Amino acid sequence: MGRVTGKVALVSGAARGQGRSHARTLAAEGADIIAVDICADIETNDYPLARPEDLDETARLVEKEGQRAHTEIADVRDRVGLAAAIDRGVEEFGQLDIVVANAGICPMTAGLPPQAFVDAVDVDLIGVMNLIHASMKHLHAGASVIATGSVAAFMATAVNTAGMEGGPGGAGYAFAKQVVAHYVNDLARTLAPEQIRVNAVHPTNVNTDMLHSPPMYKAFRPDLDNPTREDAEIVFPMIQGMPIPYVEPEDISEAVLFLASDAARYVTGQQLRVDAGGYLKIKPWSGV
């Protein structure tokens, strides 16, 4: 217990899903939380996003752990507004030690307009960069930056071995995650002399609202007109090496906690896959 005691963590996409889990886990280990979320829908993203009451619930869970929560409704695509939100949180808590760039969307519906590609890249890549870059003036030696990637970062395209159909949004998602991985590598090299660490966590399927949505079911089961969760769960395990449909948000949070803590004080530039062996199914051993 207490692995991040006395630290302040910024988490984007914090209103639900992985972001809420990260905020709660870090709070349980002693961190105060600046929780940011758009709390509104994005037109090309065909499943509903979080609402303000979801962000309030995250704050309640943080406070239940005995830590302080500062919430901000902000869009990671808006660098100016996001920077102002971060500044307000840092002003309240006096410091910033951990940045978790987690906000993301996955508009996987086939037949969406090209704007779906743009929106996926703007949230999943530009949003990551905006959050980190707007935070950098507050960071110091010993700080930890963690970006949420995806096993999709290691796929050649948005179409994988399960036969998924992702459309322009899926292509944008895969592209964004690939570039996030590269970005983390190069930013880690840049910030290493400052003793600021930068790492990525790459999940497989995660048991969240993003996965459990009609567009995602259809992406996994393009052979059916209106697939249900039960229909999709038959093929969910095809992504992983282990015979499971998905991991839990807490599984990702444990990796985030490790990278945020002093136990990882010399760990930087890593691409940490929490994918139940998914990478092993798509990449042969290279000997490197």
TrEMBL record:
Keywords: NAD, Oxidoreductase. Pfam families: adh_short_C2. CDD domains: SDR_c (cd05233). It comes from the Bacteria. GO terms for molecular function: oxidoreductase activity, acting on the CH-OH group of donors, NAD or NADP as acceptor. SUPFAM superfamilies: NAD(P)-binding Rossmann-fold domains. The keyword RNA-binding does not apply. The keyword Oxidoreductase applies. NCBIfam families: SDR_subfam_1 (TIGR03971). Belongs to the short-chain dehydrogenases/reductases (SDR) family. This is 3-ketoacyl-ACP reductase.
